[in-house]
Amino acid sequence: MHEPDLLIREVRPVALDQEPATGIGGAGPVDVLLAGGRVAAVAPTGALDPTLVAGAETLAGEGRWLLPGLWDQHVHLGQWSLTSARLDLADVRSAEQAVRRVADRLAELPGLPVVGWGHRSAGWPRRPTVAELDRVSGDVPVVLISGDAHHAWLNTAALLHLALPVRDDVVREAEWFAAYGRLASLVGDDGTSPAAYRRALEAAAAQGVVGLVDFEFSGGAAEWRQRWAEGCDLLRVRMAVYADGLDAVLAEGLRTGDPLVPGDDRLTMGSLKIISDGSLNTRTAWCCAPYAEPDLVHPAGLPNLDAAELHRLLATAHAHGLTVATHAIGDAAAAAALDAYAATGAGGSIEHAQLVAEPDVQRLAALGLRASVQPAHLLDDRDLAERVWPDRTARCFPLRELLDAGADVVLGSDAPVAPLDPWLAMAAAVHRSGDERPAWHAEQALTPREALAASTDGVRSVRPGGPADVVLVDDDPLDPEAPGASGAPRTPDAAEAARRLRAASVSLTVAAGRVVHRR
Predict the structure, then answer these.
(1) How far apart are the C-alpha atoms of 73 and 203, rounded to whole Å?
(2) Cβ-based neighbour number of residue 140 at 10 Å
(3) Which of 10, 203, 237, 353 lies 20 to 30 angstroms, CA to CA, from 80?
(4) How far apart are CA 71 and CA 236, in angstroms?
(5) Torsion sign over Cα 277, 94, 421, 64
(6) By three-state DSSP, how is residue 279 classified?
(7) Could you give the CA distance from residue 78 to residue 218 in angstroms, rounded to a whole number?
(8) How many CB atoms lie within 10 A of CB 197?
(9) Which DSSP helix (H) or strand (E) runs through 245?
(10) What is the pLDDT of residues 129-154, one digit of tens each?
């Protein structure tokens, strides 16, 4: 892929690799030349050699703020592309309310299967049953996927269609993950066509996203290559593989970072993804201490695979040049994952890092692993965590401790569990509250500068030689950290800073030197 040179004139750079006391990002305004997929030059406006910029397409920055391109480090892109066609159940508060919503949809679109998304039954007064869905749906399949994606509530028709045993309870964890791939057979064009993916990528670009890590349960490299050729070559994508697709990746000799399409470094092989435990919502996150809730079959949650299998997978991936992304919600899962990384020498990440013991924060940093965290989850999980983990909420989403320990903290969404919106993730990391309540464990908050730096895939400023991945926003997103009248930095108000981040307006996104969004 070759894009024409691009000159962006009169922009004000925001640097993320300096102390707050030095202000908001160096001299400005500047002109930036992008050429050959890299930043070719940055100079005060009007100072670039005319022969250097001859023939470049010129865009007027008009004093807007220049940032490195944003990344979402944890996305299920196929599931995210589906959400617009799904029945939204995020606001339901009981099984009865959800059933009424399903009945209304069936009355509106009789005979069509219903796929819903977003309910969180852990906070409901009672558990949902298959029988109550059957009473309103008959033989029309109904699949209601929980907001954390770790279980689904199906009626009997859907259970039979997806070749699942009939029961009167939800389908959880590994059984649901295996069935998810069969959902397309139920709903036909289920929103994962190339056109649907392209729409999802365009929406991400409008948020300033230049790249994402795709953890979808999918057909692997062959499927992504086909999709890429059919118009989904908009952003940078790192494709993860799960254990059931690992043999195909190894047979092809793919290593982390290898291009999946020859000559195009935008679509690359990512990590082996391992889901080592469950989720808070299903009470299957594996913890060192029991949940504060009686009558659980597994009082402290449980692992999805034993230590030997975890070690085997990490060792295999490491031996073949693959990093490993290990889902670990509970503190016992995080500890077991760190044991496996230490024993095998594998590199990669702890995905979610939602509950981590203090010694394991230090171990994670010492092992050189990334903490890939989705801060918007704390907005949804706050109340439930207070109920079922009342003795350990100070260890939930320990962003400050991770960063202070020297861990590489990166942010993402886990879309569709949370919206694919990096500004929401940053705001949650900074304020740790999504309503009028005070911050939830404010001692674990990040500053706006730190949150933004955790969202740019390690790029801290737009410099010559860096990737041609840049974003223009209308206002300075770090203004709350600007020096006060005395010249000393003023202490930012977290709520004010979060509001400013949420209000960010992206006017231009350039990925690999290509304009992918322009307002």
Answers:
(1) 16
(2) 18
(3) 353
(4) 9
(5) negative
(6) coil
(7) 8
(8) 25
(9) none
(10) 999 999 999 999 999 999 888 999 99
Of 312, 320, 434, 335, residue with least CA distance to 376: 434
Is the four-CA dihedral 391, 393, 396, 400 of positive or negative sign?
A: negative
Structure tokens belonging to residue 178: 């295996």
CA distance 380 to 267: 32
CA distance 149 to 417: 7
**Predicted local distance difference test score (pLDDT) of residue 149:** 87
Q: By C-alpha distance, which of 509, 236, 299, 283 is closest to 384?
A: 283
Do residues 332 and 300 touch, judged by C-beta distance below 8 A? yes
Nearest to 148 by CA among 202, 198, 245, 74: 74
Query: φ and ψ at 133, to 5 degrees?
Result: -70, -40
10 Å Cβ neighbour count for 1? 12
Distance CA 6, CA 191 (A): 34
C-alpha 396/C-alpha 393 separation (Å) is 5
> Can you read off the two tokens belonging to residue 338?
């760190």
Q: What's the CA gap between 358 and 371, in Å, rounded?
A: 14
Task: Return the half-sphere exposure (C-beta side, CA atoms, 13 A cut-off) of residue 510.
Answer: 32
User: Residue 25 — pLDDT band, cuts 50, 70, 90?
Assistant: very low
Q: Is the pLDDT of residue 498 over 90?
A: yes
Task: Supply 111's token pair.
Answer: 């005979």
pLDDT in tens, 149-208: 899 999 999 999 999 999 999 999 999 999 988 887 887 655 678 988 998 999 999 999
Taking the alpha carbons at both ends of the chain, their separation in whole angstroms is 24
Phi, psi of 89 (to 5 degrees): -120, 15
Angle CA(291)–CA(297)–CA(302) in degrees, nearest 5?
A: 65
- CA neighbor of 394 nearest in space, from 443, 336, 350: 443
**Is the peptide bond preceding residue 29 cis, with omega within 30 degrees of 0?**
yes
